[in-house]
Write a structure and sequence with these properties.
Elements: E1 14-19, H1 25-39, E2 47-48, E3 51-55, H2 56-63, E4 76-80, E5 92-93, E6 96-97, E7 101-107, H3 114-126, E8 130-135, H4 151-156, H5 160-179, E9 184-186, E10 197-201, H6 210-224, H7 226-229, E11 238-247, E12 251-260, E13 262-264, E14 268-271, E15 278-281, E16 284-288, E17 300-303, E18 305-307, E19 310-315, E20 327-330, H8 336-348, E21 359-363, H9 366-378, E22 383-388, H10 393-400, E23 409-413, H11 419-427, E24 431-435, H12 438-463, E25 468-479, E26 484-496, E27 500-505, E28 508-520, E29 523-524, E30 527-529, E31 533-539, E32 552-555, H13 559-567, H14 575-591
Parallel strand pairs: 1-4, 1-7, 7-8, 8-10, 9-10, 21-22, 21-23, 23-24
Antiparallel strand pairs: 2-3, 3-4, 5-6, 11-12, 11-20, 12-19, 13-18, 14-15, 14-20, 16-17, 16-19, 25-26, 25-32, 26-30, 26-31, 27-28, 27-32, 28-29, 28-31
Helix pairs in contact: 2-6, 10-11
Length: 597
Amino acid sequence: MTDHTHADTLRTPIVAVLGHVDHGKTSLLDTIRGSAVSEGEAGAITQHIGATDIPLDTISGMAGELIDPSDFDLPGLLFIDTPGHHSFSTLRARGGALADIAVLVVDVNDGFQPQTEEAIDILRRTGTPFVVAANKVDTTPGWNPQDGEPIQRSMEAQSERAKSMLDENLYEIIGQLSDAGFSADLYWRVQDFQKNIGVVPLSALTAEGVPDLLTVLMGLSQRFMKEEMAIDVRGPGEGTVLEVKDERGFGATVDTVVYDGVIRNGDQIVVGGQNEPIVTEVRALLRPRPLAEIRTEKEFEKVGEIGAAAGVKIAAPDLDQAMAGAPVRVVRDRTVDEVIEEVKAELAEIEVDTAENGVVVKADTLGSLEAMANALREAEVPILRAEVGDIAPRDIAVAETANQDEHKAILGFNVDLLQNAESDLENADVKLFKNEVIYQLVEDYERYVEEKQRAQQETVLDKVVRPARFRILPDHTFRQNDPAVVGVEIIAGTLQNNRNVGYFEGNEFERVGGLSGIQKQGEDVDEARSGERVSIAIDGPTVGRDIEEGDTLWTDVPEKHAKILEQELKEEITADEREALQGYLETRRKRDPFWGK
């Protein structure tokens, strides 16, 4: 066993930056990049595809006295920056998150927002260590900016008022972290970073506090990840696809983060595809040209090989079915079949359980597809089909086959509707939901289902015969027959016109006739509610022979209606209607226990 802890075998830790949409993720990355460029000569920063590599000496230059470079044998930090994927924290490497460590950016004035909560969920699920960047401290009223300074020195330069306002906001964030189940504190108070989350106040605008963030990230990586950073430098490369892109002159390419070993031009590789793993050969490894040469025509330069950790664009035949989030593996000294099995096994971990019926789910990466599936499982929404990619005509066709109306839906996370699918959607009975926040997408869908069910219940409720119990008042016979007209009081329920009515003789229901009119204070009405006194016209009976003053009558509720009322609409009807229904059912069931069941 060779000793893996030499600096030349330690790879750069991969850092993911995530957070709510306008809390400053991108500007924080730009600031780190910008200060890095001004710190080293421009040449010191290698441009990567979808990532920025900041070497240790540049970090130590930016962090000043906060860092002693001799404490570290890790080569620096690799920031992944795929702004389109706030969900890319779910990109995976060997069953874990692709990122070794994460920065959760939170606007110090705004606190936790939907995507913050979502990011926290992902970090918790993948067990990724993280620090919180409390951004925008410079917007504190009365703030006196100290450009690029460590945050504690910057805080000493503030008025008492500004300092206490900032403290209040910071403690609010620490409280929200605690609600989410993480014990946290300002980073300089944290003793054990494995037990507590460090909060770093900073400003992406003035770069104050940025030295602290880099210091904390370096320290965390060095202390807790050194073992994981030890890799076989010359071993077969392994990586994760960030994005699949068409490049002029190269066809479909995959932007990949390599986290282990080395990929060489000409290597045979296996890449996770939408149907089967893709076996192909590297035609070119592409990197952005150094900043100094940006004036040249071609934006990429070819490199012969690339070692972990790095971002690179791989050009190879047959990559158009590749998937964001899928594994990339170099075959080298193994059989192709072995590597195909490995890729399949990794993809199988992400398989989404699908059901016979349910909704169609599309997401931008495998990781976000998995996160969507988890959220829907918690909401008990079944999934018929789940795939990575934009919404295509066949997705609409599949959604239309759902046998329940509410499942004729497509939930799209971070994806577009392809142009050739637009007219299909207009002509199809399919509802499309799109959102950049997973749980809002799920909530929008749940709200839609609830409204649909409510609307269905309302139409059913309009047609259902409502239960009512009422009493003929003494001395209120206005006409004896053809039709009989009597004054009644409704005891419970709703008496509706044009319904059949009757009474119970023992447990037998005797129908006496049908209502042909209800009058309230001389006005014709369609119904009368519990407690009201009205006069009614009944076709059929004669007062004094078939019915008597003082009799209690009931609306004749058909068995099918009674069943719907009891089983589906119980919550939708009023308490006194429930009472009337209960009495009616109890009497009916004395004779036939299964009546209306």
